[in-house]
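Inputs:
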Amino acid sequence: MIFVILRTVIERFLVLVAASILIFVLLNLLPGDPATVMLGLDAQPESIAALHRQLGLDSSLTTRYLRWIGGLCTGHAGSSYIYDVPVWQLIRERFQSTLPLIAFATGLSLAIGLPVGAMAATNRGSILDLTVMSTLQTLKSIPDFWLAMMMTLLFSLTLHWFPASGFPGWKNGIPNGLRALFLPAVALAIPQAAITARFMRSSLIDTLSQDYIRTARAQGYGKTAVLWRVAMPNAFIPILTLIGIQIPVLVTGAIIVESVFNIPGCGQLLLEAVNQRDIPIVQNLVMLIVAGVLLMNLILTAIVGWLDPRLAETGA
Amino acid sequence: MKRAVFLLVAAGLSLASQARAESPVPARDTLSIGVSIEPPGLDPSRSPSESIGTITYNNIYEGLTRLDRSGNVAPLLARAWTLSDDGRLYHFTLQENVHFHDGTPLTCDAVRFSLLRAKAADSTNPDRSVFTNITDVSCPDDGHADVRLRDAHGSFLYELAWNDASIFSPGSSGNNIHHPVGTGPFLFQEWQRGDHVLLARNPNYWGKPPVLKSVTFRFMPDPLAASNALLAGELDAYPSFPEREILGRFADAPELRVIRGSFPFKAILALNNGRRPFNDVRVRQAIAYAIDRKALLQAVSDGDGTVLQSHMAPNDPDYAPLPDRYPYNPERARELLKSAGVQPGTQVRLSFPPIGYARDTSELIAAYLEQVGIIVTLQPLEWPAWLSRVFGQGAFDMTVIAHTEPHDIGIYDRDTIYFHYHNPAFHDLFQRYEASSAPATRHALSVSMQSQLAQDEPNVFLYSVPRDTVMNRHIRGLWTDQQIAACPLADVYWAP
Amino acid sequence: MSRFHHSYSLITGIVLLAFCLLPATLTEMLHGGHAPAIDIAHRYAGPSLDHLLGTDPFGRDLANYVFTGAFNSVMLALMAVALSTVGGSLLGLLAATRNATGSLIMRVADLGLAFPPILIAALLVTALGASATGEILAIALFGIPGQIRITRQAAQSVLILDFIAAARMSGQRTPSIIMRHVLPNIAPILIVHGSTSVALALLSEAGLSYLGLGAPPPRPDLGRALASYQIHIFDHPFLVAVPGVIIMLLVLGFNLLGDGLRDLLERPLTRAKVAQ
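Outputs:
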């Protein structure tokens, strides 16, 4: 068991190293020089050379890579080229909107998806099932950014229930922050909720057809008791795996939705940084996202394995 | 009878006005201003970004001279100056009792420090080439500064008014990018990245104290979001509103005014004069004939603006309203192309930066050129790629870009200019213009230069659009014409 | 009841796709994929006999533009999915049959799944320049890790069946076993996954183009159109509604098609699994 855990951890670590090399090489292949971006149209060659020296861009690729990784290991991620502010400070500021947004959206999608999926599964084949599943299928097919626009048109610009865009930060009170994140979270959550519901439905149907359910029923447990005590917890396990798979998708969705709602989050920061060749921000932010996703997957796999040892074998 | 009523009404009015005078509504003393781009830092000596000037110019930083709202040079930190007969030695008399926000007094040392720092070998000043003409700055005493130039240069005082020629405090200049320190009427308070920069009134300002107590610059890149914020009263003003197509939303808002200001905005289709087929003047003229520039203006700005005939915006004092040499005429374009030996089906590439007017204009131009047999491949570039490939290396066929610097016709005389235009006749005109100081001669030479460009058509001159400021109707004193990227707030106040 | 439900999915899916793709193909054939003509004098025209859906900010016929855009999107999505299906399936089969290589492939797939797909697209488009090819590559790259996982899982579930062991005993080699036994058995899963992948690819395509990472103009594109029409949400909401609805119908069509196919094709396999 310890060997398995160790192997998994080492493997994930190697994936992380591969990610760091990949992102570093990709970023350095991009056309466009950070110094020209910063100095603009009338920059003199000497000024550009001076800036190269200041930013450490005059040393070799290997040196720069090792310097970056060395810094990461000792906790110094360096400073943004453009803002000249420590990278962690910028990322921390931006995570204040992105993390709550993703958490809010995940919560919403589970809160909607699980009950709806369970309802559809227990009423399998009924008109209710048919209606719910068709609605979900339709919702899943809406581009999230378009859904965001349409919701803004209705709820912000016509009904004035929610702000149309922007994020005031948490300093102006938590309710204001939540109000600003509500529409983006819904836009992000609805397609996810549809996926969750479908998954929950098939998982529950699958579970309900298992032998042990029939055994439990045969032993005289009531339909509701079996559903809640036995079937639901078992059906929920694959949902955990689904969450793991959906996290990178949510991150991508968050980037797009942040752009529609003009929320100063990590997605905006990432796209801006790519556009301005602010290499320290891009490479560290990407590493953070990849590490976060791998860690979440590891934790979820561990939970699934703990809940159901059979699945752990195939999951790893 | 009628007269009595009139008197009564008058009496009532005067009573009412008295009542108002006795209990005045406290005037608002804060302002929240929307800007479309967040600056990369607040140090103009490190980056040319216009967003820095909007926040800091004459609010935080001040230079020896300044530009007033009509674009004229006026004294600021230099109270007065004299110029030696050979035009190479400026003797400046500094204002007295000026202190930087960090408490240090303004002396000649700060002037020498700032100017020499800008010209130093490791300087990252975006206009370093201006400062390399300075050979020396000497300090006869704290209150005077002598600036010596290598070559006489008529525009020197104008260039000293630019934001990157501001005078910085030697002690704190290294940290200006995060915490700007100048001598201006406003103090930097805070910068919440991604959201706003807050400035507060400088209680120790050397000049006339500003009316406003605090000013917030909020970053609102999305025009739709900005329009919502203005309509909801969350923003008081938005100079240089980024999207003309939604200005109509403000028409019904009683508290808002839209002011149409001027702007040295010159959208051009730049052609690589160093490459075939654009090295042939007939081809360049043919392209000009092939494009319906009035329709372009209609599409980007609903027709509000000016179709350009040369590289000069209508708000420039030297602007000459030249006749339209290249009215839309695809037939003439085809003839010219044929005579220049350009086969129908010739492929060219049109690169454009990621900005609305450039994208729309490029797409339309591609469609017009296809009509005369030129097949255009559109190539969207991000700013870094555009800057390095098009502007830096001059490696492109065509590009759509707006030049927004005032008085920049001199770029057509630069050896290194990206569109590779060289004409001895133009060079001669420009040299005579630079050397002369009589306003009438200068104007006449400028008109000749404009007309020379219209004839050579190194680039297709497209259009100039006005600059729109959306603001609360009670605001007074805001700059609505753009001379340089700036939003000076010292004289801004709320009228009742 | 369930059977009805699924054949209903299939039929609805086909009807929706036909509704969008027939006019799209017709437009494509009539205009050869060219963007409709620009006519600045008639910008923002309302629906009429000349322009069934009105005109856009350049005075182009909206119906023509939107349907050409739909055709382009579907073509692009199909190509991306073809790439990711072939690539992902090959790697997945390799992963299922070779232990060491398999584990390496799975770790690469992990990396692919952990990388935010949009970032890959942004970097790719920045490096290669905005083009349909770059977009196809980016979307195919998103799809490959999932395709690897699904193929490997399906192949493994077939490989443990008794008749495979029998085939091995009779001296058949791995490539031949894969060709004769594994592929025919997992083909339904791949087809169904392919159909839903097209739906997903269409969504990705719209998102990338919306962010400006898609193919450049003048090639009509729904995501790009939405990005530039967005500011007209007040004065011309119709402009924003139409492209969005078309994308939604296409995605829904492919999703329903996938559902229907799953029911039609996967049943024998499920039965085989149950039997096993």
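Remarks. The domain at 2-23+61-275 of chain C is CATH 1.10.3720.10 (MetI-like fold). Chain C touches chain A at residues 1-2, 5, 8, 107-108, 110-111, 113-119, 122-123, 126-127, 199, 203, 206-207, 210-211, 223, 226, 230, 233-234, 237, 240-241, 244, 247-249, 251-252, 255-256, 259 (CB under 8 Å).
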